[in-house]
Amino acid sequence: MNQSKLLEGGNVFKGADKQPLTQRIATADVESTVDYIEKITGLDFTKEKDLDDKKPVKWLGTTGRKEDPDGTFERNSSGDLDLSVDANEVDKRTFADKLISQFGKENIKLSGDNVHWKVPINGDSANGFVQADFMFSANPKFQQGSMISGGGEYRGEHRHIILSSIARAKNMKYSPKHGLLNPQTDELLPNGNDWNQIAKELLGQTATVKDIRSVDAILTYIKKLPNYEELVAGARETLGKQGIELPKANQIESYQPGSIGWMRQLIEIVK
User: Fold this and answer.
1) 8-state DSSP, 148
2) What is the pTM (predicted TM-score) of this model?
3) Which of 145, 169, 190 is the last residue in one of the domains?
């Protein structure tokens, strides 16, 4: 199963010919479009910034983050606007009804924990429309960490596949919606929805949330561990079907005793 489908809405607005009524949005147009959304909804999506990339933490996935020097539209745009909403503070049904009263049922859809709006880019329908996905969560901090975008050849869903593979190898279950679970009961493990704790449980006690933000970061951390192949075995099979090959242990450079990598391995062995 594609675990990212648990988190993303897909394209829900289509015409009679089944063609999408929304389009990709250029990164340069994201901020002004979100500003329009904030004025309509009365919600803030921009004030709190991520400490690493300085982007708003409520902009999920690739929203406003695709900035590639090659200048191509594909690498400098997002398919939709994924926005985090705290379900403890905002009622989803009330929120949706307010938008429906203003823009009509044809422009507002509900699915699972999400409300979708066919919103005019930059607040002007002459610019076309983009799908805005308001993603409601009772634990928005976990949601925001779960929907960190991918990078390079890897997408966000690939990160979830890697994390799930590592969890299975350590007799745990990983859910992109809930966190680390007991594989027999599906009960949340202690602090299993805290990203720093998830990093330590899956990667090792020296790991932090930065080590788990992307596939590249995860592989960099675990590739020197003696059980690397075991950790990625499940992901290797799943990603292989998509034509994505993870590096093998014998492709990874060795390291000298006394180095950081050597110390990390020693900690993993004795902990």
Assistant:
1) B
2) 0.82
3) 145
